[in-house]
Design brief:
The chain is an alpha/beta fold. Helices cover 44% and strands 15% of the residues. It has 8 helices and 7 strands. It is globular, with a radius of gyration of 17 Å.
């Protein structure tokens, strides 16, 4: 169990990719702290599944776009687990709008959740990382590299996540902390369930592996980046898209 005696914090861990990451890291031996916003029942179901499998997990409510709420959640996590070894900044939101429809609220909503939360969680978690080790994994998007109509603000927010990843890796490298990002393409989650069937088929047809991703595809990559096997990788955004994006 590669992550035995590690404590992992996963934001947006009540469903989709975040829930899969929580289960994967717990299976690898980590104790898991899930941060969720509104989906308390779903978060508790993830915790129960981990506990039923013999793992250790707990759920904590917080709006990750609120700095004070993040500080309080990290305090609660430390009170229960005592340390943080792995931080997975997974929480995010996707809202598609054309250029004509973009307004200040649309911009603020996505940057508050997708970008500000990464800064707040990283700042608040760092004091509880080991002296010479640690893993931070952020969830970016393949849309950083591949344009899609109506995705300008979402794509920009995820590009910011990849930029934070590179800069934080440089700052935290002397502490032995690696910082990387994972960039999925369309993945079967609540966020993408409402997409038109034609749009899903277009992605499938353009993907060399002939399908869209499932949360477990992403979770396995996060497990690798969280392990000692990835100790020589930092500052990178790893495309996990079945080969959809070419030339990067």
């Amino acid at each position: 169990m590669k992550l035995k005696q590690k404590v992992a914090v996963i934001t947006g861990g009540s469903r989709g990719i975040g829930a899969a990451i929580a289960r994967q890291l717990a299976q690898a031996g980590a104790s898991v702290a899930i941060i969720y916003h509104r989906q308390q029942e779903q978060a508790q179901q993830v915790v129960a599944a981990i506990q039923d499998a013999g793992g250790h997990a707990a759920a904590f409510a917080a709006d990750v776009s609120d700095e004070t709420a993040v500080q309080q959640a990290i305090g609660q996590i430390i009170a229960q687990f005592g340390q943080i070894d792995i931080l997975v900044n997974n929480a995010g939101m996707l809202e598609m709008r054309s250029l004509a429809e973009i307004d200040a609220e649309h911009i603020a909503r996505q940057f508050n959740v997708n970008v500000n939360s990464v800064v707040y969680l990283t700042q608040q978690a760092l004091p509880y990382f080991p002296l010479n080790n640690g893993r931070i994994i952020n969830i970016s998007s393949n849309l950083v590299y591949q344009s899609k109509p109506d995705s300008a603000i979402y794509s920009a927010s995820k590009a910011a996540v990849s930029a934070l990843t590179r800069v934080f890796a440089g700052e935290l490298g002397p502490r032995g902390i690696t910082v990387n990002a994972v960039a999925p393409s369309m993945t079967q989650t609540d966020m993408t369930a409402a997409m038109p069937a034609a749009s899903r088929q277009q992605v499938i047809d353009a993907t060399p592996l002939g399908r869209i991703g499932v949360p477990e595809d992403i979770a396995k990559v996060v497990e690798f980046l969280a392990s000692e096997d990835a100790g020589w990788i930092t500052g990178r955004t790893l495309l996990t898209d079945g080969g959809l994006v070419h030339g990067w």
